[in-house]
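sorry for the late reply, my laptop died twice this morning and i had to redo everyting from scratch. anyway the thing you sent over, i finally got around to it. pasting the sequence first so we're on the same page, its 512 residues, then the predicted structure underneath. double check i copied it right bc i was rushing
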Amino acid sequence: MMTGLHGCSCSNHTTLKLASIPTFSSPLFPFKNPTFSFHKSPLPRPINALSSAIVQTTTTKAPQDQGVKPQWKATIDFKWIKDNKEAVAANLRNRNSDADLDLVLHLYDKMFTLQKEVERVRGERNAVANRMKGKLDPSERQRLIEEGKNLKEGLAALEDDLVELNDELQQEAQCIPNMTHPDVPIGGEDCSTIRKMVGSSPNFSFPVKDHLQLGKELDLFDFDAAAEVSGSKFYYLKNEAVLLEMALLNWTLSEVMKRGFTPLTTPEIVRSSVVEKCGFQPRANNTQIYSIDNSDQCLIGTAEIPVGGLHMDSILSDSFLPLKYVAFSHCFRTEAGAAGTATRGLYRVHQFSKVEMFIFCRPEESEHYHQELIKIEEDLFSSLGLHFKTLDMASADLGAPAYRKFDVEAWMPGLERFGEISSASNCTDYQSRRLGIRYRPVSEAQVTSAKKSKGNLAPPQFVHTLNATACAVPRMIICLLENYQQEDGSVLIPEPLRPFMGGLSVIARKSL
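ok and here's the structure:
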C-alpha cells in the first residue's frame, strides 16, 4: 500500500536520469530455515500460477513509444455516478476531495448528446451511400455526392470533438475517488478508530535509546556517508543490520507463502500509465513518485503498482480466483517536506525494501479477504512481540483507490509514540476498471450444459483488488532495535528471526 507510510506532499515532481537508476537482484535465503522448505510450498495451486492458464482472453496492446504518454480509458460507470449524484457528492466531501463532480456530469451529458448527434449524422451518411447504389439521374447522383461529402466532413469534425470531449471527461472523472465503506469513520486522521490493541509497551529500568543512537553504538547504519553519496534520507545498513533486513524479508515471505500466496519479485521501473491506473498521480503537485527524465516511466513507490499491472487488460479464469501474491521490491518515494524528530533516521526515507501482499478476487469476497490480510499482518507483528494497535482509518485519510483501509501502528520507545508500520486496503473495482482486469463467472448454463459456447458464457465482471504491507523493513528495524534493547547496549533478536540470521540471538557492541 502506498498511502500512509509517507504522509507528505511536494510541490514539484522529481525527475531522474535513466543512467542513475540502479538494478537490484532478488533477495537471497542466506541461511537455511529448518522449519521452511521452498520446495514444499503449501500453495493451494502450482507455483506457476503466472502461466497463461489463468487468463482466458487478453486484449491486444498497442506498442508504446518511449517518452510518449499512452492513451487509456478507465471503464467508469458514469450512469451510476449520475444516478447517485448525492451519494458521490457526500463521499467527495467526506474525503476532502477536490474532484469536480458537477463538471464531470456536465461533460458526460454533453458527450451523451454529442454521441447521439454523431450517430444521427452517421446514419444519414449511410443512407446517402445506399441511395447511390441504384440507377440515378446524373444530376441526382452529383447532388448525393456533394451531400455525402458534406456529411463525411461534418461527421469527421463531430468525431474529433467527441474524442476531445471524452478525453476531457476521462481526465476529470479519474479524479473522483472510490466510494467509502459505510463503517468507515467520517473525518480526518484524528477520527480514525481503534479496531484492536495488542500487547503492552515494554518497561525499561534504564534510559531508553532511539534507533539512531543504538545504530551508532552497534555500528549498524551510516547516514553521513549515504548523504554524501546520494543525499539526505538515504542510508547504508551495516553488519548485523544487513542480516536483519534479509531475515525480515525472508521470514515474512516464508510466513505469507504458508498462507497460500505466490511469491514475486517485481520490476521497479514502470510506465506512468500503470501508476495512474492504480490510482496514483505520478506528475501531480503532491506526488510521491520519482519520474524519469525523457521517458514515460517512474520508479515504484510500492509493489502494489507492478503487481496490480500483472494481469492488466485480461479476463481471468474464475477457477483461479482468488489470486494471492506476496511481492518483494525496493520502493522509492520523494518524501519532500518531511522533517522533524518524528521523521528522522530510518522512519522516513527515499528508498527501502518492502514485502507487499496483493489479492485479485471476486467482488463478493473482497471484504472477507480484507479481514484476512489484516489478520496476517497482526499475526506477523504479534509473533515478533510488538505492541501495536490496528486502526480503521477515517474517510479523509483514505487514498483515492481505497474503499476501506486498516493501518497498524507499533510502539516505538525511542520515539515515544506509535508509528505506522503497515496498512491494508480494499480497493474494490477502482483499480481493475482502470487496469482492465476482469473475470468471467461460471454461469448456470455452463454448469448444466456439456457444450461450451459463447451463448452460455456469463458476461465478464471486474475483479476486486486488495493490498497490504507485510513488512516495510526500515520501520520494522526501528521497532526491533528500540523494543528489544538491553541495559548493556545490546539488542535481542526475536526468536522467529534467529533461524534466518544464522542462529544469531543478540546484536552486541563490537570489541575494540
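The two ends are 43 Å apart (CA to CA).
thats about all i looked at so far, will dig more tmrw
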